Amino acid sequence: MRGDWLLTSFWGYSDSARRRQSWNLLRDLASMSSDPWCIIGDFNDLLSSYQYTWFKSLGTNRALEERLDRAMHTHAWSLMFPEARLINLVAATSDHSPILLKLEHEPYIQPKRSFRFENAWLLDNNLVDMITSNWPCYPASNIPQKLKYCISDMEAWSKENSPNFRVAANKLRRELELIRSTHDHLSDATVSIVQNKLSNVLLQEDRYWKQRAKVYWLTDGDKNSKFFHASASARKKRNAIKKLRDTNDVLVEDQSGLCNIARDYFQNLFVLNHGDHSPIVATIPQRVTDIDNEMLTSPFTEEEFRQAAFSMDPDKSPGSDGLNPGFYRKFWPLFGREIFEACCSWLEDGHFPPNINDTNIALVAKVDRPESMKDLRPISLCNVVYKILSKVLANRLKRILPTCISNSQAAFVTGRDILDNALTAFEVLHYMERWSSQPFSGSGVDYARGSLVGDCFGFLFMDGGNLVMMVWVVLVVVVIIMMGLLLVVV
């Protein structure tokens, strides 16, 4: 913390006869405090000739430029802000150029521009035709490599053909008005062509902002680009992480410090703890029958993969490769069979190709002004191929979960509410407080770390388990979490 300091916004007398009074006023102000002090404003006095902040009659023979606006500071203030800079900006109409005082040097961080598929592109027949014609030319029987080639082609296409929708729409409107101003516009076939182009551009803009707004409840209706734009802007502002507190409760605002806090938090959170799991497994009664195992290990069908792909909203966020579910749903007739065969091959071999399970971690704020990593919820943005494969396995597990999960388990079960157990706990405590004359206490089990899940799955993969073993581990974790939801000690 640098401590307190003073900032004074100053406007000096424009009358040259009173300029000495301006400086005397500043001297009097300086004698009132010893705190670090900075003055910024229009001094209306000439101290140097560079850089100019005021001009008069530019473009004429009487043109005049002077430096009237500046910032001045005490020595103590300069020691407090050694990297402070005064920047001369550009004004549109005023005869004074605005000045910007930056207290610290902010190094420019080049944003990582990665490919992101836009659902608005699906309305352009040129892109659809390009992908349809190029896909058979990519290397056969290698889905990850074919997707990389397709991404490269779409990225090159987008640089030349992806328009600024607002500019394109205004251009088409002007063109349409020009055609309508002619006398024979009713018989001009160009009118309908331009109208169709304008409608398509407006629809593309609507898709563009809808994809960013993440408004999944609106499925059809009039174009709502303004609404989607406002929703996307509010969402971006809400999810921006500007400051966090580290383990020492120190507020950190610089980008590198924020990255270090997030990295250290997750490294300490997800740590594999080795232990003996056999006592836990021994307490779990057998629920998965031989018939269930036969169903779980039966051959997969292409329809299972298609249902998994189409169960995802097309506007869902993409993974590290930049492809979202909308891309796969659009071109599933083109390469759905290849994805199905590739995923079945990976499951049979027990190995994924490199980078197929790469995941981006996004932090979503749980409160309005997050200041701690506990105020942020991590969301895994997996590649869609990996999500399709995971959904296929999850859909099979759903068939047997009703026979394995107790009725008291309310979280993450279809048709049940995660708040049911919280309400039950509240009612139990309320009953005990009202009718019990003896002191009592309650304790909750915190599963925020998820270490139990990590330990169990680590145990699974270290021992080289198969799909049936994975089902057993999932059931063990579900039952243990269910048992720990509420623990009341009287």
Automatic annotation (TrEMBL):
Pfam families: Exo_endo_phos (PF03372). Keywords: Membrane, Transmembrane, Transmembrane helix. One of its GO terms (molecular function) is catalytic activity. The keyword Transmembrane applies. Residues 10-96 form the Endonuclease/exonuclease/phosphatase domain. InterPro entries: DNA/RNA_pol_sf, Endo/exonu/phosph_ase_sf, Endo/exonuclease/phosphatase, Retrotransposon-Effector_Assoc. Coiled coil: none annotated. It comes from the Eukaryota. The chain crosses the membrane at residues 467-489. This is Endonuclease/exonuclease/phosphatase domain-containing protein. The lineage of its organism: Eukaryota, Viridiplantae, Streptophyta, Embryophyta, Tracheophyta.
